[in-house]
Design goal:
By secondary structure, the protein is an alpha/beta fold. The chain is built from 13 helices and 14 strands. The protein has two domains: about 100 residues, Enolase-like, domain 1, CATH 3.30.390; about 240 residues, Enolase-like C-terminal domain (TIM Barrel).
Length: about 375
């Protein structure tokens, strides 16, 4: 369709650490996406500029063809940079298509399987003094589930003192809130194989909702040793970027919950395929999302349309968002309102997020160069962040 020809692609790099893409069509319908790797926003921005010749002039309705060309059209495929660039473009194209047909995106994915989605939010965990305060704050906001880090930096073989610290945070939560609060524990890839089972032993009495990234994703072949050791559900996947990255762990059955990120793993198109693959192995999906409003909306449309989606992460109030939070660039923040721990099914066409371009332009003037910290142990050796 000539009126859906893509005519313009604009990028907005704004604080705290986000990158948004706006795609405009000949008829004036626009779509928004969130293509970013935390700490590599400028690199993804450059990648999108490189992809522009394959997008401009194309029919925005041809989402799958554009996805295939962007992924397969270059000799080198996959990885966090290319897949995050594709993710944001893909989100924006689904946004356009939903607006063009006047339906929410989940309707284009087969329709809704639920009328609301359970949510959780991050509360820290590196330092115990703020745990109870942050948890109560999230409960007051309407959450019934939270996630926290299991530990700060940890040596390959940690001391008994450090090991005993690990369970203290979730112990405090259980003593204060009992079983009324679901608590996910994120190992964040900070733990190496020699310590993983020992730390699980410390956490098991306090019944975590799941354990996330017990090992780095490049060591997924070792998950079999963790999976067979505990009854606590094992989650991983935020640093995996395509169905091919997920294929082996799904086949091996060494994970209970996969966590692809809608802004890293090929967008709505690819994560829908990954979710379907997981369902065939009786594995659930809980998309990773410590990012902005477009990433969250994209994840929720996926959740609304997938029977094996179980819970959704939100970055609202996360410590990265200093000065600029999830709702600050939106005209309609109410779509993310929580009720009894859930976000209700969206009604607006497309992704349903109305961005405030005036605020985005002000944010662009500030920009950002966010980088994650570099941690070192007592002996000066690098430790995982």
């Amino acid at each position: 369709m000539e009126n859906l020809k893509i005519t313009k692609i604009e990028l907005f790099k704004v604080p705290p650490r986000w990158l948004f893409v706006k795609i405009t069509t000949a008829c004036g319908i626009i779509g928004w996406g969130e293509p970013v790797v935390e700490g590599k926003a400028a690199t993804v921005e450059a990648c999108i500029h490189e992809l522009k010749p394959f997008i401009l002039g194309q029919n925005a309705n041809n989402i799958e063809d554009i996805w295939q060309v962007l992924y397969r059209g270059s000799f080198y495929r996959g990885g966090p940079i290319l897949m995050s660039a594709i993710s944001g473009i893909d989100q924006a194209l689904w946004d356009i298509k939903g607006k063009f047909l006047n339906v929410p995106v989940y309707e284009l994915l087969g329709g809704s399987v639920r009328n609301k989605m359970k949510m959780y939010c991050w509360i820290g965990g590196d330092h115990p003094e703020v745990i109870l305060e942050q948890a109560q704050e999230k409960i007051n906001m309407g959450y019934s589930a939270v996630k926290m880090n299991a530990t700060g930096g940890m040596d390959w073989l940690a001391s008994i003192k450090d090991i005993k610290k690990v369970a203290n945070n979730i112990k405090l939560l259980r003593e204060e809130f009992g079983d009324t609060l679901d608590v996910g524990i994120d190992f964040h890839g900070r733990i190496h194989k020699p310590m993983a089972k020992r730390l699980i032993d410390e956490l098991a009495p306090y019944d975590p909702m799941f354990i996330e990234e017990p090992l780095l994703s490049e060591n997924n072949d070792l998950l079999k040793h963790i999976y067979s050791y505990t009854s606590i559900p094992i989650a991983t996947g935020e640093r995996m970027f395509s169905r091919w990255d997920f294929k082996e762990i799904l086949h091996q059955g060494v994970v209970d919950i996969i966590q692809p990120d809608l802004s890293h793993a090929g967008g709505i198109s690819e994560v829908k395929r990954i979710a379907a693959m997981a369902e065939a192995y009786d594995i659930s999906i809980a998309p990773h999302c410590p990012l902005g409003p477009i990433a969250l909306a994209s994840a929720l449309h996926l959740d609304f349309s997938c029977a094996n989606a179980i819970i959704q992460e939100s970055s609202l109030g996360i410590h990265y968002n200093k000065g600029f939070d999830l709702l600050d660039y939106m005209k309609n923040p109410e779509i993310f309102d929580l009720k009894d721990g859930y976000i209700e099914l969206f009604k607006k066409p497309g992704l349903g997020v109305e961005m405030d371009e005036d605020k985005l332009k002000e944010g662009v003037k500030i920009g950002h160069d966010w980088k994650n910290p570099i941690w070192r142990g007592k002996d000066g050796n690098f430790t995982e962040w």
